[in-house]
Amino acid sequence: MSLAVWLPFTENINTQGLENVKFSKVNSCNASLVLGGKIGKCYSSSSGALVSETKIRLGPRLSMFAWVNPDSLGNMAVCGQLRGTAGTNNSSGTGACLSINSSGAIVATIGTTYLVSKNSMVTAGVWTHIGFTLYDRIVKFYKNGEEVSSDALGSSYAEISDFFGVFGGALMANSSNPRTVNTSNIFKGKLNDVRAFSHACSAKEVKEMAKGLVLHYKFDDEYILGATIYDCSGYRNHGHVNGTLTSDTDAGRYTRAIYFPSNYANNIFVSTATNIIPSLKACTITWWEKPVTGKSMLIAGGTSTTYIAACKESGTFYNNGVTGTPIYYKDGIKTPDTSMNYTAGEWHHYAITDISITTFKNIFINNYVGNSSWCVNGRLNDLRIYSTVLSAEDIEALAKVQAAVDSSGNVYTFEYKEV
Fold first, then answer.
1. Cα(226)–Cα(218) distance, rounded to whole angstroms?
2. Rounded distance, CA 379 to CA 255, Å?
3. Residue 405: count of CB within 10 angstroms of its CB
4. For the segment 16-57, what is each residue's pLDDT rounded down to a tens digit?
5. Which element (helix H / strand E) includes 143?
6. Are 259 and 247 in contact (CB under 8 A)?
7. Strands 170-171 and 82-86, sheet pairing
8. pLDDT-derived band at 304, boundaries 50, 70, 90
9. Terminal CA-to-CA distance of the chain, rounded, Å?
10. Can you list the pairs that 18-25 forms with residues at least 24 positions away whose Cβ atoms lie under 8 Å?
11. Would you tell me how many other CB atoms lie within 10 Å of the CB of residue 47?
12. Among the listed residues 348, 368, 358, the one whose alpha carbon sits nearest the alpha carbon of residue 300
């Protein structure tokens, strides 16, 4: 995957994304980091733009995607490198740009061609994942991971190298400063996870982007260094190990799992000071687990009244300090919370969707504020948190692809292939 631009916008610019692509503010940009993003925090702006400090090479095949939440609808450039042909005319020229028009439709400007998605796709004040791909003169538009329409270019598109703008993707032509943007079509609102690729993403890649995977602990040895559990989602929600946790080859999904002895002092801590998890709304949590006993404490919120996925021997799941109407799955099948029992000595896949964890102060895995009766004695594997509500089909796929356990809960393969 040839990722050319990535701005998660969950931390200050240039502390995430691609190390060799830096951005800075132009045209009196007032973009700032705020709460209320789709994947945690986000950047909000009402003037100016962020523009790369070096030129980005894109084309002739390319893709642009972003989570957008506009303050209002209008002709606004989300991101791109569209260089006008003369003066301040930036409606066409060289380069490409992802925009939204006054009707809420997705717009792809490719060189001198202006293509618009069918129907209104974006609503003011609502988070929507939008974008387009270009392959062999065919532009495909996507909303929330699904293709919504397509259109054809009249001519081929050549590779170009130019600066890349965000919150404004139309670059001024004939300007003494080539990083200046056209201020008449600045995006006003919030953005998360802006990406540009120098290839046309497949439908599968787009769908995965739109799911919003924001934390992924594989627990393989290569992702554990000292007391740090490294997050494989790319968003740096790394966990810190307290106490003693051991790596085990008895794994549910990857090659290894983490074994938790029955002691709440042995846990994984994720600080909210740097991570994005506690401001998520309508999210999904999935994991593999094999308890020694029939109880579990998966995630707690750092106070005595905030916890998710707590299960005692009775088989009933508990949560508190969360909002939404939780939907529970066991081994890919929707299951009432009273039937989400853990079976000692067996690997099973669990998932909870449609929950919001905005009240969490910190996050602990296997710790209920020092309550030893809620900690797990067993193995945990492949923990994931998504910023969206996954569908029943998505949950089933996570549970069944290279399932890794047989009908008796025994491991039969360590091979892993992406969903």
1. 15
2. 13
3. 21
4. 667 778 999 999 999 998 888 888 788 999 999 999 999 999
5. strand 138-143
6. yes
7. parallel
8. low
9. 16
10. 20/54, 21/52, 21/54, 21/56, 22/52, 22/53, 22/54, 23/50, 23/51, 23/52, 23/53, 23/166, 24/50, 24/51, 24/53, 25/49, 25/50
11. 15
12. 368
The pTM score is 0.86
Tell which wins on pLDDT, 323 or 214. Answer: 214
Q: What's the rounded Cα separation, in Å, for the pair 1 and 47?
A: 32
Place of tokens 């994304």: 17
Cβ atoms 183, 218 nearer than 8 A:
no
Distance (Å, whole) CA 65 – CA 98: 8
* Among candidate residues 351, 346, 350, the one with its CA nearest the CA of residue 412: 346
Give counts: helices (H), strands (E), the chain.
2, 36
Report the alpha-carbon distance of residue 332 to residue 374 in Å, rounded.
Answer: 25
Instruction: Work out whether the CA dihedral 326, 332, 335, 339 comes out positive or negative.
Output: negative
Tokens of 98: 């992802």
Compute the distance between CA of residue 201 and CA of residue 4 in angstroms, rounded to an integer: 12
3-state class (DSSP) for residue 166: strand
Residues 6+ apart with CB under 8 A from 146: 207
User: Cα–Cα distance between 60 and 57 in angstroms, integer?
Assistant: 10
What pLDDT is recorded for position 193?
93
Per the CB < 8 A criterion, the answer to whether 142 and 148 are in contact is: yes
CA atoms within 13 A on the CB side of 153: 21
Six token digits for residue 224? 């554990």
Backbone angles phi, psi at 33, to 5 degrees: -80, 125
Q: How many C-beta atoms surround the C-beta of residue 419 within 10 A?
A: 12
